[in-house]
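Need tokens for this chain, all 404 residues.
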Amino acid sequence: MRTRINLAKGAATLVTLVLVLVLAPGSGLDRASAQETGAPPGAPRINAGSWALVDADTSLYLAGKNPDKRVPIASTTKVMLALVALDQGANLDEEVTISRQADEYVGFVYSNVGLIAGERLSVRELLTAALVPSGTEAAYALAEHLGEGSVDEAVTEMNDKADSMGLKNTHFENPAGIDARGHFSSARDLAEIGREAMEYPEFREIVGKSEATLTTQTRQIDVVTTNLLILPASGYDYEPATGIKTGTSVGAGPSLVASAEGGDESYVAVILNAAEDLQRFEAAQAALEYGFGDFEREALVSRGDAHGELQLPFRRDESVKLVAAKSVSGLAGPGLEVEERVTKQKEAPPAAEAGRKLGEIEVLVDGQSVGSSPLVAQKGYEEAGIWQRVKYWGGGLREWVLSR
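Here are the structure tokens for all 404 residues:
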């Protein structure tokens, strides 16, 4: 009887979710609004409380609105829970028993998959349940496992991780994103959490699933993603999309952390408190398309380009050019400032072969280092001979006499 009740609860929750997604009206993008705070000219104007677009490779901030504003974030919280699990090196095949505390989150208030106390799932399946259909009870079961029986300990680990990442506008009170005073993040911080989580192949695989099957000791549970960007035929499916996680609550509103990649470009877009439930998917796609359309990865320094020179010892009119030993690529686009910092030896060595390192060039985009290259001698040269030295000293003596 208990199994039937909980299965009914899970089915009802799924039906409710489907009805919300199908019936909620989309408002599109608010292109008539004022230019977004923190977005360069030409960026999409997105009707959301805050949003951010970052380069997934470097975390370079590209555009957004109120990117550092602290706001509720609902179930996007679960991305950090997963990141902590993967950082800990959790055994993904280890079985976890659903506790009665986790079971309490099965019902109509929170998103769930209808897990029952006493059922056993692997850590991998709990991650899948928490990230794909956004199972709150799965998140609590996983947090208990990570905290060795204590949800609070797992939340402390989530906050410690945020601190170690330098996230100044993030703090967690629970592992699932339930609205609570003191539970918040920002669009920029969430983008950083998302891009770091995507560095784990296991995470990428899970959040890229449009559907999955969970297996307990007694049954199988089919689940479907809440991220319509990766759900085929959803009407909002977006071919370059690779993840990541939705979130919705009274305090947070419709929210989404989305990722996409194409060619050598990859981006993370975060939409918080969107105008409508379905509009968050339109908004995320607009932000990601802006990234693909207006930015591109290119050689900011090309191999063989000259970046200064050094005068040769004892030869007043001879120098050796310093050239980049390799190319340095980075993102270029609207509002991005590229800076080159060149350091070189104060004096050239007495002799050098072609290709000897004599300096370095570092490339920064908007103040953030994106790479460096050694600066090497373009051509080799030999040590100055005795007559070159005499000529050098004689010229110096002549200049000294004339200056008297």
